[in-house]
Design goal:
Distance between the termini: 48 Å
Structural class: mainly beta
Helix content: under 10%
Number of strands: 32
Number of helices: 3
Shape: globular
Strand content: over 45%
């Protein structure tokens, strides 16, 4: 009887060992298990009106617990970031105007907030400053042309880049134009869009439609240096489009900038001298992290480049059938979206797909990262707040 009991106990032990081994193997080798180390949880969702298909510079802006958004039809919303509820909204477009005239008043840029003022720009080249405490219009100013870039603010000066490559500095308190700089004549062939200004202490760095990147003093607009990204020996630039529509990035005293014709340069921030230049085609904003540049090329491949010399580290081509965009880094992972409403995250060093989340059935226009939360805006102005959970 003792022998039979011992054999029975032994059999149970063997079966349990096999089961545990199998479970451990599945847990450690199943890609789904690895992808579940991050979970994206929906907190709330809302809607702020009609689509923004052609207005990509209407970005969400976060300030002191509130989210500020605008749609092209003139509506500006203030939303409680915790609950997703609309606290207030205003409409800057006259509700009695006819469509043929209203279209020239469409909002195209903003919002951005400084102190208690919110700033937006429209297709007609008009800038509004709004008091977020009482929703009153403090001032409005007409500039040269349509505003298709983001605003930046430094030293009480609102920097504006408008069509025909006009860069201007306005007093943010009263809208007075302090200085105006013409960045050069655009080429006959040009892509609709403008480079966003980037600030570094008392300087503003900007790209233009003629392939020039330049540095200017914020207080008076005077030129510090100018560099030309156009290279006539670039055989692939057969159509002659030299626009710099991507925002330059400043990293460790170097300006990184790319033009539509494929020229990618690292430029000395102080002098404007070229440190290195390569041919990498990208028409979307890129990012830099720990001396590595990450960009998306027109074939929807993700490139990793050495920021010190521009040499290629690796390429990921698994997403060639998707139109991907919105690169950002969180918790040592690269996140991005596609045109079908998916959010993906991959390994930072090896480019291995770790997980994905279906956000919406339509393309995602903007993502704003606030600590471990994601504000996501689609082309049809659905707004989501997700929390990234690490498991």
């Amino acid at each position: 009887m003792k022998i039979k009991l011992s054999k029975f106990v032994m059999l149970i032990f063997i079966l349990c060992s096999i089961c545990l081994t199998s479970c451990t193997y599945e847990k450690n080798n199943n890609p789904l298990y690895k992808s579940n180390k991050i979970r994206v949880k929906l907190i709330w969702q809302n809607n702020i009106g009609n689509n923004n298909l052609s207005f990509k510079k209407l970005n969400p802006f976060y300030s002191k617990g509130f989210l500020y958004l605008a749609n092209k039809n003139g509506f500006i919303y203030c939303i409680n970031i915790k609950t997703g509820k609309i606290i207030w909204y205003i409409n800057l477009i006259n509700k009695y105007c006819f469509f043929s005239s209203c279209r020239y008043e469409y909002l195209t840029s903003g919002p951005i907030i400084s102190n208690n003022y919110l700033y937006v720009g429209n297709k007609q080249g008009k800038i509004f400053a709004i008091n977020i405490k009482n929703k009153s219009i403090i001032w409005k100013q007409n500039i040269f042309n349509e505003i298709l870039s983001k605003f930046v603010i430094r030293k009480n000066i609102l920097i504006v880049h408008s069509m025909n490559d006009i860069l201007q500095g306005l007093d943010k308190n009263n809208g007075k134009i302090l200085w105006t700089v013409h960045l050069g004549h655009s080429n006959l062939l040009s892509i609709r869009g403008l480079s966003d200004p980037v600030l570094f202490f008392d300087n503003v760095i900007i790209g233009s439609d003629n392939g020039l990147v330049s540095s200017h003093i914020i207080t008076n607009g005077l030129s510090v240096w100018e560099q030309n990204l156009l290279r006539m020996n670039n055989k692939e630039n057969f159509i002659g489009i030299n626009d710099i529509d991507i925002q330059p990035i400043i990293y460790k005293g170097i300006v990184y900038v790319s033009s539509y014709n494929g020229n990618f340069m690292a430029i000395n921030l102080s002098t404007g001298d070229i440190i290195w230049e390569k041919i990498y085609f990208t028409h979307k904003n890129f990012i830099i992290n720990h001396n590595i540049i990450y960009l998306i090329d027109p074939l929807n491949r993700i490139f990793a480049l050495n920021a010190k010399n521009g040499n290629l580290i690796w390429i990921i081509d698994k997403f060639k059938n998707n139109k991907i965009n919105n690169l950002f880094i969180y918790n040592k992972k690269i996140f991005f979206t596609n045109n079908k409403g998916f959010l993906y995250w991959i390994d930072l060093k090896k480019g291995i797909l770790l997980g994905s989340k279906k956000i919406d059935k339509y393309k995602i226009n903007h993502i704003l990262v606030i600590k471990n939360k994601l504000v996501i805006q689609t082309i049809y102005n659905k707004i989501y707040l997700f929390k990234i959970l690490t498991i």
